[in-house]
Structure formats: structure tokens, C-alpha cells
Amino acid sequence: MSGHSKWSTIKRKKGATDAKRGKLFTKLAREIQIAAREGADPEFNIKLRLALEKAKAANMPKDNIERAIHRGAGLEKGEALEEYVYEGYAPNGVALMIYVVTDNRNRAVADIRRILTRSGGNLGENGSVSWQFENKGYIAVPMDGKDPDELLEIVLEAGADDISIDEGTAEIYTNPKDLNAVKTVLEEKGLEIEQAELAMIPKTLVSLPLRETLQVMSVIERLEDLDDVSKVYSNLDVTEEAVAASEAD
Prior knowledge:
This protein has 249 residues and is an alpha+beta fold. It is 46% helix and 21% strand. It has helices at 2-14, 18-36, 46-57, 62-72, 105-119, 148-157, 179-188, 210-224, 240-248; strands at residues 82-89, 95-102, 122-123, 133-142, 162-166, 169-174, 195-202, 229-234.
């Protein structure tokens, strides 16, 4: 899965331009607002805590963050946002889980369907692909010369379920409810956390030739660029070769 981690990093860098920063802040504000409905105190709300960490990492202004929390908690009037999950297929049978936060469900569905059908994919029924994924806590840690055996011992003692180390990145998987506890232990051990989130992890990956892989990656990026789409998970095997080709674009 390390290709996925590196691809996520590249996409974040591409999205760091001023032209895209405003759209990113809007999406982050929506994520915070939705999370804050479950409680405005990040100490007791892991979804909110993770959303706030993402916002701070993106240098989102403090006023924007506080406004989003207040709106989610019902302390300030805001958009009537709802959260939805759509399932479907990209070209070549790659399964997609598309997470949406929107004030207009019809618009969101129409935009998603347009991108998928034009690329040779399609929307599916509820349950059509979700069985191919597991809800997990996910943490990415740069290796930076760390000893793999030592890191494995730290990760397992911290309570993680599994770890995968490849090409300079350690990807750590936890039970969703254990994510914050494991993350805290790793930080206390001095490890840098590159990414931490609750994620839908594919049980198996679909491997495609480079050209088809890049085609599917392009579809996913177009979906993620939609204002209403907050996250897209896939079972595509993103290889190091595909990541390098994507970064060269």
C-alpha cells in the first residue's frame, strides 16, 4: 500500500497552490463541521481531532476552523450539510468508495455519475463494493533509516494490528477505536506521523498495466476535485512506477 501513501503525498503537494487552497479549506471546513456534530471537544471526538489535525497541517486559518466547529455544534448557522457514501467502479473493474459531504445530493450524484460514465465506469448499488473493504485506522510513518525490526516491535506494543514497510514508508493498521491510542504512543516514541486517518482499506488489490493504472488514478483525482467529494478509496494497486509517472505529469 506504500504507493497509495506516496500518491496521497504528491496530491497534497499539487493541491497546495493558492488556486486550490481555497477549495481545500472549504472541504476541510465541511469535514470539521460534520465531525463536530458528534461533539465539539476533540478530546472525546476522534473524527473531529483527526479533521482538526488535517486542517492545521494545511495551514487553515484558525478563524475558519473555529467557525466550522461552531456550525457543526449548532452554535452558528451554516450550510445544511449531509454526509453520503456512494459505491461504484472505475474503468477496468476497480472498486470505488466515494465519500460525499454536500448541501445538494442531486448535484453531487450527477457530477460523480458524469465522471464515471465518461471514463467507462459506473455507479453501483449500496453494498456492491463495500464488502471488498475494511474500516481501519491508518497511520503512515516515514522510515528515514529506522530499523524495521525495532519499528515493528514499537508498533505492535502500541496495539496496532499490522504493519507494512516498503520503499521508505511504514503503513500501520489498527482497529478504528485504537487509532488515537496507537498514534499517541508512536508520537511519544518520537516517530513522525505523516498521515493518520480512519480509512476504508481494500482487502485485495487490483493490478493493472501502467497505462490503465494511470487512467484510473486520473478518474480518482477528478472525483476528488469535485467540491462535494471529501474522499475516494479504491482497491487499485498503485505501484511505485505509477507514482513516479504521476509525479512527472
